Amino acid sequence: MKGLENSTYLLLYCISNATAFVILLAAWKKPRLARLMFLLLFAWAGWTNWTTALRNPEFYIEYADLSLLDIYKRFIHGWFSSHVTISIRFVAICQACIAASMLLKGWILKTGIIGAIIFLLAIAPLGVGSAFPFSITTSIALFLIFINRQNEYLWISPVSEYGYSD
């Protein structure tokens, strides 16, 4: 995959995909732990994108060279290149909202999960830039949380029918 010849990208790629596997395992066995992991992941990503967009917006143009699809390359070098800061700040706000939704329950949590899945699938064609297949693996983890019918606030431990929590 283009970009993996760079040792920094390779290291981050391996760490990202190992993390995705841990999150997937958590979503399968301990969905509340996976929600906490997604809260931390999206909060960190939102903060990182917000600050990078303000300090070094041209950094995001490099993703064009890593993209697997020509349409992404054209978009990044076209409209996006003239609107990087506002676009990435919008993404960062959405990532912060997704992080917050992981704390909550009901339709807010479901909306956050759906938004996160859409976002992760949308960045998948960025290849190494999105640590592909990280975004696919974490989308599956989010789907597992979604179908697990998580309906408690993250900080409230659910009590099973036997009177103890997980």
Structure keywords:
166 residues; mainly alpha; globular
General description of the model:
By secondary structure, the chain is mainly alpha-helical. Helices cover 69% and strands 0% of the residues. The chain is built from seven helices and no strands. It has helices at residues 7-29, 31-55, 63-66, 70-82, 84-101, 106-123, 134-147. The longest helix is centred in the N-terminal third of the chain and has 25 residues, at 31-55. 28% of the residues are buried. The model has no long low-confidence stretch (mean pLDDT 92).
Instruction: Bin the strand percentage.
Output: under 5%
Give the integer mean of the pLDDT values: 92
Helix content: 55-70%
Q: What's the number of structural domains?
A: 1
Order of helices and strands: HHHHHHH
Q: What is Rg?
A: 17 Å
Low-confidence stretches: none
Distance between the termini: 40 Å
Number of helices: 7
- Assembly level: single chain
Major sheet characteristics:
none
Beta strand count = 0
Shape: globular
The secondary-structure class comes to mainly alpha
